[in-house]
């Protein structure tokens, strides 16, 4: 069975989620109070409807309780975002992701049961800052507020050494989950794998451990 998603609020954020889910072949119900926004998504989403998501009877009649994941992408109208999230959780929707406008908004969304809260501007800012502060960091993915997956470029210090020589896990507490070399990717490299300067390493660990690894190894 295909997973069913609903996106409420078709601004830039909700719109891009809706578009990407549709491109991936998912079933997507697109909802907005604004007719023009809905018209824009009629050819893209599986269904697109004009509705006020703060109206409980409307959300019920759309059958939202049966969706696998609902994304509340209403940002500016904090009142509408909170009320919509509350109704969805009361209806029993298992996964609700909500976009927060500020820290206070985030706190309220979490209190009323939002499963995932996203701060697109802040989160993207953190991600970009992490990418630009270190020239060796290519990409960065936050797993929790304490753990990340980071893509880095191996430097001179690692050149010609095996993972076992470097004793990465024991010394830094991080795991190298993959090594990319000349476009070839080796997933779950073994201890005897040699690292070369310029290889791309994908590492997973706690943020302090990753920091230590970056400072001492790269
Ligand atoms: P973004 O910051 O993602 O670009 P935006 O600034 O264009 O979004 P927001 O005010 O954050 O717009 O709202 C996103 C969408 O949510 C808008 O298209 C708006 O019409 C819709 N929206 C606002 N309130 C409701 C509601 N009660 N029911 C359904 N949709 C709503
Ligand atoms: P461990 O208890 O840490 O798994 P081990 O002796 O079983 O130790 P080996 O596979 O023999 O592990 O590797 C020796 C050392 O090489 C490990 O202790 C670890 O520090 C490092 N190592 C091997 N593979 C990796 C990896 N993918 N990422 C990080 N470090 C690794
Ligand atoms: Ca906005």
UniProtKB/TrEMBL annotation:
SUPFAM superfamilies: NAD(P)-binding Rossmann-fold domains, TrkA C-terminal domain-like
Coiled-coil regions, chain positions: none
Pfam families reported in the protein's UniProt record: TrkA_C, TrkA_N
Highest rank taxon of the organism: Bacteria
Record-annotated RCK N-terminal domain positions: 2-118
InterPro entries hit by this protein: NAD(P)-bd_dom_sf, RCK_C, RCK_C_sf, RCK_N, Trk_Ktr_HKT_K-transport
UniProt-listed Gene3D superfamilies: NAD(P)-binding Rossmann-like Domain (3.40.50.720), Regulator of K+ conductance, C-terminal domain (3.30.70.1450)
RCK C-terminal domain location: 135-218
Protein name: Trk system potassium uptake protein TrkA
Organism: Scopulibacillus daqui
